[in-house]
Each structure stands twice: as structure tokens, then as C-alpha cells.
Amino acid sequence: ADPDPLQDFCVADLKAPVSVNGFPCKPEAEVTSDDFFFDGLSKEGNTTNIFGWSVTAANVLAFPGLNSLGISMNRVDFTAGGLNPPHSHPRATETGVVIEGKLLVGFVTTSNVFHSKVLTAGQMFVVPRGLVHFQLNVGEGKALLFTAFNSHLPGSAVLPTTLFASSPSIPDDVLTKAFRVGKDVIDNIKSKFSS
Ligand code: GLV
Ligand code: MN
């Protein structure tokens, strides 16, 4: 979904003093082979959290060599029962391949149709750009997933935290009306995310 590059590469200068729609390129004379390799996805992430999952991002912020190339990846680790909670990527379609374990993968279209399937090692899925999706580990042990995006910075709006843990928080009046429940229910959900 990102624009086409105008040159072979544009290794991001993440510390540039100017702000543009993307990142400026570091001078070509300073580019080395290391700029085009990244080992940040080689290690299991820390899944000790409320959802039992971990997303390790290889986007332009972590891997500046991706800048302007319209591509990036994530590594997603799951404990048994772990959930990558419902979220959407405003700037990218996502595809993924299960490496280990058994995941229920699903997304909902803008016509409100739910598509889902249980996938095991080697099996793939695609989530069209912007649609809300999740993965739930339904296997006995851990699970491992690699995902890829057609953006160097797909962005992620995670529904539970977007709605119930923003700062400042969304007024209860908005959430009680949206979910047709009392303030007690909204406050209870909000309390699960306050640390
Ligand atoms: C999975 O949904 C991911 O965003 O990596
Ligand atoms: Mn995703």
C-alpha cells in the first residue's frame, strides 16, 4: 500500500531533524551491508502478559533498510491459549504463515462477515488492508507465526486498548452507548488495563 520507491533504496535516517511523510535517506556513502540485514526476529518474544502473546516488529523503525520499500514483517509468539487480540493495520494488507502450533485465524469484513480457519505449520492466510483480525492459539503448546505487510510501517489499532485504555480515556458515556451496557461494565473493562 505504500508508494513506489523512487530509487533502489533509502535507508532511513531515523534521527533526521526534518519531518516528512516517511523518513529521509541516510547518505549513500554511509550505507553498509548491515543496513540490509536484520536479526531482530530470531528470538522468541516475552509472552508473559495479559494476552499471552508477543509481537516483535521488523518495520522501518526497527529495520531502517526497509524505508520506502513498502514491505515489513512481524514475528508473533503465543503461549498455550495466547491471543493476538482483535486489531487492524491502517496502512497494509497482511499475510502470514504459521511456523509452529495451531492457530485460529479470523477477520471480519466491512459487510460484517466473519472469515476464519484453524491453521497449522506451513499454512497461510491473508487479511485485507484495514480489516479487524486476530489469532488465537488453540493448540496444546506454544505457537509461532510470521507475518508480512505491504507497508514499511503498517500501524496497528488494537481494539481492546484503543477503546478501553487510551490516554486520556474515551468518556464512559460514549462506551456505554456504543456497547449498550452500564457504566459499571465499562469501568470494569477499563480497570483490566490500568496498571
Ligand atoms: C498479526 O496479526 C500481526 O499483525 O503480525
Ligand atoms: Mn495483524
Structural class: alpha+beta
> Spans with pLDDT under 50 lasting ≥5 residues?
none
Query: How would you sum up the global shape?
Result: globular
Secondary-structure element string? EEEEEEEEEEHHH
Multimer state:
single chain
Overall number of strands: 10
- What is the radius of gyration computed over CA atoms, rounded to a whole number of angstroms? 19 Å
Largest sheet: 5 strands, antiparallel
Mean pLDDT across all amino acids: 97
Strand arrangement within the widest β-sheet reads: 1-2-9-4-7
**Bound ligand species:** glyoxylic acid, manganese (II) ion
Summarize the structure.
With 195 residues, the chain is of the alpha+beta class. It has three helices and ten strands; from the N terminus they run ββββββββββααα.
Structure description:
With 195 residues, the protein is α+β, with helices and mostly antiparallel strands. It has a domain at 165-195. The chain has helices at 159-164, 172-179, 183-193, and strands at residues 53-58, 72-78, 83-88, 94-100, 102-108, 114-120, 124-127, 132-137, 143-149, 157-158. It has a five-stranded antiparallel sheet, with no helix packed on it. Helix 2 packs across helix 3. The longest helix has 11 residues, at 183-193. The radius of gyration is 19 Å and the shape is globular. It starts with 52 loop residues before the first strand and ends with a helix. The relative contact order is 0.17. The model has no long low-confidence stretch (mean pLDDT 97). Glyoxylic acid binds at residues 55, 74, 76, 84, 94, 133, 135, 147.
Write the layout of secondary structure elements.
Elements: E1 53-58, E2 72-78, E3 83-88, E4 94-100, E5 102-108, E6 114-120, E7 124-127, E8 132-137, E9 143-149, E10 157-158, H1 159-164, H2 172-179, H3 183-193
Antiparallel strand pairs: 1-2, 2-9, 3-8, 3-10, 4-7, 4-9, 5-6, 5-8
